[in-house]
C-alpha cells in the first residue's frame, strides 16, 4: 500500500513565527514516517524551495506599496480568494491527499479553500494558533486591554476600535471578511476538526458558542534532543520574544526595579524605545539584547535564573515556556490565557497576577532567595514534564489518532 499524502497548508513557507515553526516541523515529522507531504502556501521571497511552489498563491503583504487597483484586488482576495480555490482544486486532483491540515490561512490564502476541499471529499483539520474564528482581529485585544466585545456576533466593534493595525479601512476589510466567512460557513461547515494547543483556547471557543466535540487539545512540542541544558542558574531574569504592548514588558521592568534584581530582554518590536526609556526612568537593571535565535538565544536562557512571561493578553500555548523547561530553567508566568496550564506552581515555576508589578516583584524576590540547587530542581522538573508530554513523537501520535478518528487510513 502506498504511503498516505498530507496536504499541508499555511500562508508562509518559511520560519516566520511560531505557527510557521509548528507547520514546518509537522511536515518533517510526517515525512519521517514515510508520508508524502505536499505544501500549499503563498509565494514569498523568503520561502523555502518547494517543487510544488507553482501551485502557491500570489503574495499579499499588508503594509506594502500597492496601486489602488492592486489594493482593491487584494481586499477581495483577503475576503475570498478564487485563485486559492482554483489552485487547491488542481493540486488535490493531482495528489489525492488522504487529509488536509491547515494552520494560518486567513488574509492570504483565505478559508475559501475549505469549501472546495469539502466538496472534493478531503477530510480537513485546522490548527488554531490564535482566536480568529471567534475574534475578527484574532487577539481579543484592543487599546484598552483584553476585549470580548464581539462575543455574540457584534463584529462591528472591530471597526469601532480599529482593531487591525489601528487602521479603520483595514479593520473594515476584516469585518467584511468575517461576515462573509460566517455567512458561507467557511469554518463552521467546511472544517471537520480543529486542533487547539491550549485548553484555555478550547474553553474560550466553547464559551463563544462552538461545539466542544469539534476540538481536540494537542499541545505544542519542542526538540529536546537539540535543546540541551548545561551550567548553573544565573542571577538575571530573562524575557524573550516580540516587544509588543501585549507582552507586559513595562510590568516586567517596573518589577525588576521594585525587586532590585537584574533582567534581560531578548527581542525586537514596536515597544523597544518606550521600554528603554522606562528602564532609565525607573532605574531598572535591565539589558536589551536585541534579536537572537538558535544557540545565541539558548545560551542567554541557560545563563538565566528563570524565564519571565509577563503577558497581558490571552496567550495560547507559548513555545517559550517549553524551550525554557527544555533548558532546565523555571518559568514565572502571568495568570492569563494558556500560560497557567503550562506552569506547575512551586514545581516548575510560579504564577502571578497579570499586569501587577508588585506581585511579579515578589516572585522575583522569592526566586532570588532560593538556592541554585532549588532553582535547578525546578528546571529539571520542567524538562521531565516536557520529555513526558511535549515531545515531537507525542505530538505526531496525537495527530495520527485524530486522523484515524476522522476515517483516514494511516
Structure, described:
The protein starts with a strand and ends in a 5-residue tail after the last helix. The chain folds into two domains: 179 residues, Rossmann fold (3-Layer(aba) Sandwich), CATH 3.40.50.2000; 154 residues, Rossmann fold (3-Layer(aba) Sandwich), CATH 3.40.50.2000. By secondary structure, it is of the alpha/beta class. Strand 9, helix 8 and strand 10 form a beta-alpha-beta unit. About 3% of the residues have low confidence. The chain is built from 14 helices and 14 strands. The protein is 40% helix and 14% strand. The strands form three sheets. Strands 2-1-3-4-7-8 form a six-stranded parallel sheet, with helices on both faces.
Short description:
Helices cover 40% and strands 14% of the residues.
Distance between the termini: 11 Å
Q: Give the class-level CATH name of the largest domain.
A: Alpha Beta
State the order of secondary-structure elements, H for helix, E for strand. EHEHHEHEEEHHEHEEHEHEHEHEEHHH
Give the count of structural domains.
2
CATH topology name of the largest domain: Rossmann fold
Strand content: 5-15%
Gyration radius, in Å: 22 Å
In one word, what is the shape?
Answer: globular
CATH architecture of the largest domain: 3-Layer(aba) Sandwich
**Which homologous superfamily in CATH is the superfamily of the largest domain?**
Glycogen Phosphorylase B
Helix percentage range: 25-40%
Which ranges are low-confidence, i.e. pLDDT below 50, for 5 or more consecutive residues?
62-73
User: What's the number of helices?
Assistant: 14
Number of strands: 14
Largest sheet composition:
6 strands, parallel
SSE class: alpha/beta
Strand order, sheet with most strands: 2-1-3-4-7-8
* Average residue-wise pLDDT: 93
Amino acid at each position: 500500500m502506498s504511503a498516505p499524502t498530507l496536504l499541508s497548508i499555511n500562508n508562509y513557507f518559511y520560519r516566520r513565527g511560531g505557527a510557521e515553526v509548528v507547520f514546518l516541523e509537522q511536515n518533517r515529522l510526517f515525512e519521517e514516517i514515510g508520508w508524502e507531504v505536499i505544501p500549499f502556501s503563498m509565494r514569498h521571497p523568503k520561502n523555502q524551495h518547494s517543487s510544488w511552489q507553482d501551485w502557491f498563491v500570489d503574495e499579499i503583504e499588508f503594509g506594502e506599496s500597492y496601486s489602488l487597483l492592486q489594493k482593491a484586488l487584494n481586499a477581495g482576495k483577503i475576503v475570498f480568494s478564487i485563485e486559492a480555490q482554483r489552485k487547491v482544486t488542481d493540486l488535490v486532483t493531482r495528489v489525492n491527499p488522504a487529509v488536509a491540515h491547515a494552520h494560518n490561512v486567513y488574509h492570504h490564502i483565505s478559508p475559501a479553500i475549505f469549501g472546495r476541499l469539502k466538496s472534493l471529499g478531503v477530510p480537513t483539520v485546522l490548527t488554531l494558533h490564535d482566536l480568529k474564528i471567534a475574534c475578527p482581529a484574532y487577539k481579543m485585544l484592543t487599546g484598552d486591554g483584553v476585549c470580548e466585545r464581539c462575543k455574540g456576533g457584534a463584529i462591528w466593534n472591530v471597526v469601532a476600535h480599529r482593531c487591525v493595525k489601528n487602521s479603520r479601512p483595514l479593520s473594515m476589510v476584516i469585518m467584511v471578511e468575517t461576515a462573509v466567512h460566517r455567512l458561507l460557513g467557511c469554518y463552521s461547515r467546511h472544517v471537520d476538526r480543529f486542533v487547539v494547543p491550549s485548553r484555555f483556547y478550547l474553553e474560550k471557543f466553547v464559551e463563544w458558542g462552538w461545539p466542544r466535540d469539534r476540538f481536540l487539545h494537542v499541545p505544542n512540542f519542542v526538540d529536546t534532543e537539540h535543546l540541551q541544558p548545561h551550567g548553573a542558574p544565573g542571577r538575571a531574569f530573562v524575557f524573550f520574544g516580540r516587544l509588543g504592548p501585549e507582552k507586559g514588558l513595562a510590568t516586567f521592568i517596573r518589577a525588576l526595579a521594585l525587586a532590585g534584581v537584574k533582567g534581560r530582554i531578548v527581542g525586537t518590536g514596536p515597544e523597544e524605545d518606550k521600554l528603554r526609556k522606562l528602564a532609565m526612568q525607573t532605574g531598572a537593571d535591565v539589558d536589551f539584547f536585541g534579536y537572537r535565535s538558535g544557540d545565541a538565544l539558548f545560551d542567554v536562557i541557560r545563563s538565566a535564573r528563570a524565564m519571565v512571561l509577563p503577558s497581558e493578553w490571552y496567550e495560547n500555548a507559548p513555545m517559550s515556556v517549553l524551550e525554557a523547561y527544555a533548558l532546565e530553567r523555571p518559568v514565572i508566568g502571568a495568570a492569563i490565557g494558556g500560560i497557567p496550564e503550562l506552569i506547575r506552581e512551586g514545581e516548575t515555576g510560579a504564577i502571578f497576577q497579570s499586569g501587577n508589578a508588585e506581585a511579579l516583584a515578589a516572585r522575583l524576590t522569592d526566586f532570588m532567595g532560593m538556592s541554585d540547587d532549588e532553582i535547578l530542581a525546578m528546571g529539571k522538573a520542567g524538562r521531565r514534564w516536557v520529555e513526558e508530554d511535549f515531545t515531537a513523537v507525542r505530538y505526531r501520535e496525537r495527530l495520527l489518532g485524530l486522523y484515524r478518528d476522522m476515517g483516514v487510513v494511516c
